[in-house]
Amino acid sequence: MGREDSHYRPQGVDGRKNPHPGSGNATGRVPVPEAHVPRAQEPAPDDFDPEATTPIVGPGERPPPPAWRPSAAGRSPDLVAASAAPVAAGVADQPAPVAPEPAAVPVSPATSGPGDPRVGPPPGYDPSPTRRRRRPLAVLAVVLLLALVGAGLAVVRPGPVAGWLGDGGATPRANTETAEPDPAPVLAGPDANAPEPTADGVEAAIGPLLGATELGSRVNVSVADVTTGRSLYSRGGDDGTVPASVTKLATAVTVLEARSPDHRIPTRAVAGAAPGEVVLVGGGDPTLAVDGDGFYPGAARLDALAEQVRKALGNTAPTRVTVDSTLFPGPVYGPGWDSDIPTGGFGAAISALMTDGARVNPVVAKKNFDASHGWAERSPQPDLAAGRAFARLLGLPGAAGEVRRGTAPTGGGASTGGAPAPGTELGKVESPPMIRLVDMMITDSDNVIAEALARQVALARNRPASFTGGAAAMDIVLGELGLPADEITLSDASGLSRRNRISPSLLTDLIALAGDGTHPELGIIFGGLPVAGWSGTLDGRYRSDGTTAGAGVVRAKTGTLTGVHAIAGLVTTADGRLLTFAVLADRAPAGSLDDTRRALDRVTSALARCGCR
């Protein structure tokens, strides 16, 4: 595992890069919308990663699962596994989006071990629906303020962001209070006029750390200056490397470029061919909720859509629900995904119609989010599950089990007995704006949102809304941005696929472009980047010897598969210079999750600690 695919042809292997397009008028200040707030989480244990999967690495050999470690006593016999078959390597996109309903398979409590695929929740997972406690808003506000200042990110005026967020804003109220003096800065922010590090200085700071055995036999690195776009360090910088969830940075940038930050994904209900038939049409919103207990904040809701449908039908009683999820042609599982992903709790069948990211019980998933690090039981047929919930909301409990797949009429038919004509829109709800979807994807490394957003890129560039179509469209958009699309090869948009290859220099070019101000909409990605030691997938890290200098100063996206560890983002040096970095290790020793993470944290903390001149 971790070998480069033979079809990947890196260009410019000497590692030298020209400044990215538009860097001439760079300011070195990264625009972060004021109202765009990442969600802080409870500290996570170092031995768990929400992106981790457990692949088979050879005949009779399998590394221990990095996500949780079962006790010797084995798993509970009550746990069951779905038997959905993995997608075979090399399978092209198929027109059938149907995932078979898996049969429940009991798990033997006597056969648990490091070689077993994960088929149930981690120890301590509580299936009761009691809600989990959240941090007080005041604490979150302080954490966010310190994190933004510490990471050296400039907060710009809201401007168009209020519109992106869909908020009209309250009428300003006269302020009669005495203005308080400006507080003293807590941590130094970035300074575009600060001395630029030298290549020799960066080499001296991080070169010795890259030889750590915990990083494995291949570590590819790129470090660049955000203000100038100049490369300061490259070690295999142009070589394609397995990126894991760092892939989501490319997903975020391309969807923000292809769709506007205020774009919303619709879910519609239309009249079917038969009187009273309601067709629920999926538009690809992964955050759609059934009701107010949905998993994602601010999500569109099926109960609101059902109310619209009842009003539109008037005296016609709903008789049947059909689901139309044909916008995404399939397959529902990605090429190159490890065999346990369909049942592993961090991935799901990708459908144009789903609720709560295909989670079976969003209330339980929210309650256990911190303890399980995002693990949740997922429906293998999320479109039918959404249809059944919608049928119940329409007052058709007996018909919920009769929900079927179909295609919505295109319109033009005649009404019958006062019923709406086939194809008539009966109602529509819309997702949160793209700015919020991107934030949720990056902060919590949400794999299902990532795959859904790649399909939005595909639709915007007239490609099939599939794994292949999304990857092709992302390549197109990266080329439109002037980035080297020949340094990225994608099979999915979440990073779950081991076939993905991205060069570290493409990642630093991408981050620098997002931060130089020439494409303001791309700066949205920084609002969701986890802050070292504070939030997201970096909460709980940067607390050991040699790493604390990066706490609150590093903002980065992480990536983890078994044997693959990556981190890419921003750091402010001791002199106040804003740098972008990408460190990808795709041949790390098995079972070294904690040690490899600390080794990566030491590398990025060294950049924060030095002036590197």
TrEMBL record:
Enzyme class: hydrolase
GO biological process per UniProt: peptidoglycan metabolic process; proteolysis
Keyword annotations: Carboxypeptidase, Hydrolase, Membrane, Protease, Transmembrane, Transmembrane helix
Feature: compositional bias, Low complexity: 69-118
Name of the protein described by the UniProt record: D-alanyl-D-alanine carboxypeptidase/D-alanyl-D-alanine-endopeptidase
Record-annotated membrane-spanning stretches: 137-156
Chain segments carrying region Disordered: 1-132, 167-195, 401-428
MF-aspect GO terms: serine-type D-Ala-D-Ala carboxypeptidase activity
Keyword Cytoplasm assigned: no
Native source species: Micromonospora carbonacea
SUPFAM superfamilies (UniProt xref): beta-lactamase/transpeptidase-like (SSF56601)
Enzyme Commission designation: 3.4.16.4
InterPro entries: Beta-lactam/transpept-like, Peptidase_S13
Extent of the signal sequence: none
Lineage: superkingdom: Bacteria
Alphabetized NCBIfam families for the sequence: PBP4
Family per similarity comment: Belongs to the peptidase S13 family.
